[in-house]
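# nightly structure sweep
# worker-07 picked up a monomer target from the shared queue
# config: single-sequence mode, recycle default, output format = structure tokens
# input follows
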Amino acid sequence: MDWLDTAVYGNITYYHLVFFAAVIIAAIVIAKIVSVYLKKTLSDRIEKSELDTLIKIIQAGIVFIGIYIGLPRFEFDLADVVLIGGTLTIVIGFATQKVGSNFASGLFLLLERPIKPGDNVQIDTVAGIVQEIHVLSTIVKNYQGIYVRIPNEKVFTSDITNYVTNVARRFEYSVGISYSDDADLAMGVIYGLLEHHPFILKHPGPSVFLDELADSSVVIRVYIWCPSGVWWSVRTEMLGEIKKAIEAEGITIPFPQRVVTFANAIPCDGKDEGRIP
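# output follows
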């Protein structure tokens, strides 16, 4: 293997060339492995065009690192390159600070995956359905049908409420009935109605209980679990169904009322009795 020490040009030997080639080949192989992994991991989280761009940037970075590792073997003075590169990096960094922050945040979002397209979410003050997750920003369609672009830095640093990550979601009602009505009958009617609904879950099952003796009514609390995907439609449907079911049994939902007693009532007689002059 003495030929490895043979000089090719100046102080550069075959050993330097072989080492440099091995490092570059290793960097290319690693870049290829990383690209395959990213395609498998992120193909359902990001658009193909953006994924391809992201993979090319990462591949170029890995190959550049390989070149940086291999060059010193040529006794190449990297001090000047590092100095120039560092200065350019600082200048570019100031100019693209927000872009870099959004890019890094986008990568973390894609890896952590707290949200995905189609999710019903609230990000800071924006609530709606996630449409697209890009490298630099996330697009959410709010409940008024307006598309909102949120920088990924804000998405990553904000509190995120994802309403559909869990397969089931609960909602509740407060149903007031008259004091003269049978509370046990009302709760039985409500529970029977919930048991026969196809989207109301059995595990965890619904809960119906007497919650409060209010000023004008006896308050029954109703807890209902259903699949997250149909939560809104079931919630808007069931309150009307409960009202119809208890009214069909003769149970009334009272209006707010108040009994007023006078300390010194004025006596009345005849047809005016009970009237306040």
